[in-house]
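Entry for the shared binder. Reason: the reviewer on the internal report wants the predicted structure included alongside the sequence.
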Amino acid sequence: MPRFFILLALVGFLASAKAQDVVRFANGDLLRGALEQLSPTNGLQWKRADVLDPLKFRVEELAEVEFGPRPEAPAVSGDLTVLRLNNLDEIQGKLISVDQTNVVLAPWFANAGGPVTADNRLTIPRTNVLLVAPLGPGRRLVFEGPTGLEGWTKSKVTAVNGEAGEWRFKNNAFYATESASIARDLKLPDISSFQFDMEWRGFFYLAVALYTDYLHPVNLASKETEPDFGGFYSLQLNSFSANLLPVTKTDPLKYLGQAPVPGLAQKTNARVDIRVNKPKRTIGLLVDGQLVKEWVDSETFAGKGTAVRLVHQGQGAVKLHNIRVFEWDGYYEEKPTNSVALKSDLVKLRNGDRIFGSITKVAENTLSVASTAQNLDIPMARVKQLDFADRTLQTNVPPRSVRAHLATGGRLTFELDSWSPSAARIRHPLFGVAELKPEAFTKLEFFPLTGKAQP
């Protein structure tokens, strides 16, 4: 890959403020523009305003394509459900039915008229489904970004070594290598999920101020002398652990407890999900989908605003992207029960009850399960999760695979037949051929020809 493409990318970035797609190559080069066509045989066709003809690249040279802002997913009537497949892919949609052979889901991004049935349904063999988790009514997306610095408040933070920097924006992400603060009123709901992807080099230390009304950093050591600010929660996250404390101007600092984050020191990226239930005064931290800790504040909820402030403490280099705020239903998804030990299906109810037996069907918002005691019909509104028996995880990504990250959460890992602005035709190892709407995806990752272990 010639290095002059880096210069082209920089020229394109400066010449246009419009958010564009970004392709990253295996050798580290990147290029802004728009993905026009993609297939294993014809490669990547890439369009730019400053070149006469589309540029073409071999698929083997690609690392990832990150798309510009995606359109908001259309509203789904009825409740939403997440399916987790045996390869840990996750898809969200309207659950149509479950029987002893198949699970049928209608995701909004299935293309009508393609290999998918005309009513946009995916039919997945039940043996390939790890669990079914009803989400309830569709979660409202409150914020998605970043798409630029507009609307954000940047501030400098004085580090121990006296160095201060600022967050930079590039390619739909924030970057910081020195101490810096950036904040925005994201209109956090009372029950919310605040999510972002984080990448780093070296040791990192990030402080996230939640439910603040003040957009500038607060020095906790001398907070009494800071300009007036309302209370907030400070979630302090580093390469090894997480800590939470409520912060007010006049009250002494009180830590709610530290929690180790296993494995984070061995990684260079993670998905962070902070879930807050203001009425119950709880704040939970999930890293890569695993619940690290849920803190409970026994006193009045400290947060007085609806803004978020992100403070890099000047250690390591940090990248933040795919920032989203959702309304949350207050329930955590559970891990699937050990498939080796689970010899019968398991129904987990929202009240904490568990029922072992044989899940015979889900139809018309009712679950039918045959247990050892009796046959039961249970409204799906009471169901938190369905775990199917005797499932085996598929821990390897097949060679030549592409992983697509979904705009509404989740991912799909597949072989790509073709990609155009109107349709993506894929071959998924667990449900076969499907035609999907490309606007559903925020990023494509390309795995090497040899495949790799599942992350």
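Summary line for the report: The first helix runs from residue 4 to 15.
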